[in-house]
Amino acid sequence: MAAIKKTVRPKPVVLITLEGWGIAPAFSGNAITEAQPPYFNHLISHYPALSLEPVLSSAGLASGVSITNELSHRAIAYGQHETDLCSIIDKRILSGDFKNDLNLISDKIVSRPFHIISLVSKSTSEASLNHLEAVINWLTSVPHQQVFLHVILDGRDMSSKGGQALVLEIEKKLQAVKGEIATITGRLYALDLHQHESRINKTIAALTQGQGNQASSVTEAFLQSYDKNIFDEDFSPTIITKNDLPVASITSDDVILFLNFDSIALRPLAATLVEYFSFLPLAFSLVEYRLEGKVQSVYKNQVPLKTFTEIISEAGFRQLRISDSEGFANVTAFLNGGSEKTFSGEDRQLVVVPVVDTYQDTPSFNNEEITKIAVKAIEDNKYDFIAISFSNLDRVAHLGNIEVAKKAVLSIDAALTKIIGSVLETSGVAIIVGSHGLAEQMNENATDHFLPHTTNTVPFILAGKQFAGYSLGLPEAIGGDLSILSPAGSLLDIAPTILKLLRLPIPKEMTGKSFFDELRLV
């Protein structure tokens, strides 16, 4: 391919993120190469295509930290590494200052039941076991009445059945402060981002009214659920009982501490819970949940960085975000730096994922509807920037069934055919990028029906009429095989590249670099 010619400002610039679409050499466990997506392979052969580092590798984080959709999209949004709230709290714990930081809660729990609500997971993407253990340790040195833990199981960023051993271990540690586990709920119900009120309400009923499944012990709760092949993520809200009565239910006279340091997924539950009561209970969170007047935070959030989406808004440009409900937070809140509020000139289109027993039954989710909305928006030509997320491959690949994952790959390929086809008929440009890997490496942990996100590189493709047959001055993928390429950059380079395409200034704080030379654009 030759060097890219000078071009005018494209409209629209379309960012398409493919969740769980990584790069690896072809083999039987690579659902992407096994599916042989014809249009995706065509794009690699006809347009600039690169291999990028995911956010974990480029951030140099600990190997035990999971790559998540949030980390990936926030890296794309900021074009630089964020201050890691989890690490900040870890340092406060290590220095011994954490106990002093919790002093604003100390005098409140002397005479009131104290309820801790937290995701319990080996992953540190949303909550940390280290933080939970630090709270338990703090409780050993402060006067308190009763302590109850309301567990939210993961099953997404860790093993689908790993919650049992983890919760039993925590139950033993709670004994040091005479604490008890009161409820156990899967993240499907407690951390619902699909606007399925029934799931949140079911969790609230368990927390406040003792309604839901009941078990006389933590062990019994897991046996009941696992025997029905209902594992951690889908774990129905379950109340632990003593003498046939709930160990504890939350009342407006109690004190609540929300422990997740990532507030996005827990915020709907937190807001609904505190508003459930006729007068607000005393509620705290480790970090700001943006529920002013309702939940007090122990730590203030860092001064927010500016996302490229905010820069687009400030320029007076119109933008649209499109996704199904599984990926909606990715292209809305996460691309806006963690805020669910829309920027000026920003519109959103949510496509609801059908409620099914298992995503293996609907591997394409509602990709056809996403495609229809995207194509119409491109043809209407009123948006300068459009962000689209396809989440079905990520969710399906987690289940470990490569045949179903291949169907998900082909459903995305069919969507790309129409969306990119529409872009090519306009003066627009599309950037297709994998947010993180998964489906390209599906031969591990199959016995547990759980596959974690990988640290493999991800694809970057730039599609537009003006870029056909050209390169970015970088090595090309011979035969369309991106796995032979060394990474040309990272996800941090997406934001400056989009801003350069839109002819907007790139903040000096962005450490990512545009893939375009200043002289190649007019």
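That was protein one. Protein two is written in the same sequence-then-structure order:
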Amino acid sequence: MKIHWNKEKLITAGVFILIALAFGVAYTQSHLYESNQNTKFLHGIAQSGFGYLQQDWLAKTIDPLPAFSFLVYLTYSVNQNLFYLQYLILLGVYLFSLIAIASYLFGIRKSYPELFAFLGLIFVLHSRWVINAVQRKLGFNLELLHDGLAQQYLLGLEYQNSTFGVLILLAFYLFLKRRYVWAALCLGVAAILHSAYIFSAALVTLAFCLSMFWENLQGARTAGKINLRALLQAVKQPFWVGLLVLVMVLPVLWYNAAYLGPTSPAIFAQAMHIQVYDRIPYHSLVSVWLNTGAYVQIAIMLVGLILAWRSRLFPVILSLFLGGLIVTIIQVVTSSDDLAMLAPWRVSILLVPLSTALIVGWLVHVIYGWLGPRLQSMQYAVVLVGVVAMISCTQLGWMLQKDYGTSYRYQRVMRMMDFAVKNEAPGQVYLVPPGENDYDNFRLYTGIPIFINWKSTPYKDVEYLQWYQRVQLANQFYGANGPQRCELLSQIVADGGITEVVIQGKQATLDCPSATEVFRDTRYSVYALSR
């Protein structure tokens, strides 16, 4: 694909980059390392040699995301701040895809008032400050308009491998522009970096190929050449596109089967049952996540389908919607844990933001088309309002961004972890309360291994069961008192080789013969164990 640059295109590209940067600031990012980053980044950062993480039990389990871990390894080895830049780029891809698709359907880029009205509304709907304010004042979660069902999402406060799903949105636009090879590459890269996208990528690829075949066939029919040769020609292009996606995802399918596949049916079923019903029922059980907010999102997706009617986009999003719906119904009827883990409703993380953009684009186009002739003298005012909305959201996002990581709770736990960093040594393994979110980033902040936590899990079934046993043992320790606690501590030392124990609570102590207090503040204390 040849790109001929000229001055106008360069200016347009420069303006978009500025708008995309502004959108990223308005959306905001959490500081490193938060939430899912502590799971998805662990293997890559451990491989980079940070601290003693290579000795961490979880870091030594089978890596479920080797391609993304390699990206994390490369990035961290150069400069960890590049993670922020990577997320900004992906946010820019997301924004470009929404603008491009909405413009393809409704032509909003042909009119500056329509374009900037669309941008202003998209900024407002994605502004983290606005989202927080609306939630606080009205009790409505604006994230329902661009997140998926079951608390799953394409974007999020933290950069992670699931964010590469924006490439599937970009693939939609490339398909509309008949850039089929580039669309296939986007689908393949998204699935490689996050295998959970294989299901969505398969549905989209199927829709691409069927649409291409039908269009080629219709072209041959129009030319009066319906014969075997014309039929083969109609099949040729979609065949190669589908094959390209398949070739790209085959290594992922092989890796998952070879390294993460069932050890035995019984062990795999036990691990899946714990994951579905105990650890993430809010992601995996329709009976848990199907609520009023979910009905709102389903309605948004249906409206998006209607707006895409008679366009080349319709069969693509219909394929995603019907594929997700049919497999969801099968999961509900069969109560299959395997399908629950597949989470076919994950297709909504693509359909909801796309449908919201289509709704906003259609409303802007229709309203401006209706009022446009009467607003000739106000066109600059419409553009100005859109620009002001974008600037305001960006400024508010920047102010909010600066506050991340400054809360008292955050600073309080940092004092304890700073002590751990100052006194780190080879062979250390910390025992921390597994269910407390305060300690989720202990590994990536300190570089010191921990015994276990609830947030981060392995993916291989036998390792998952070992993880669950460790969690139960740690919970028993923190729930016990007196001699029983010391007996459990001895068992944990034998199983996990722990050397330090974190105790939470102002008055809490660890009265075991092997434990010596080495740190205490108003909330946390650390005990070193004699070896």
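The mean pLDDT is 91. Keep this in mind for the problem set.
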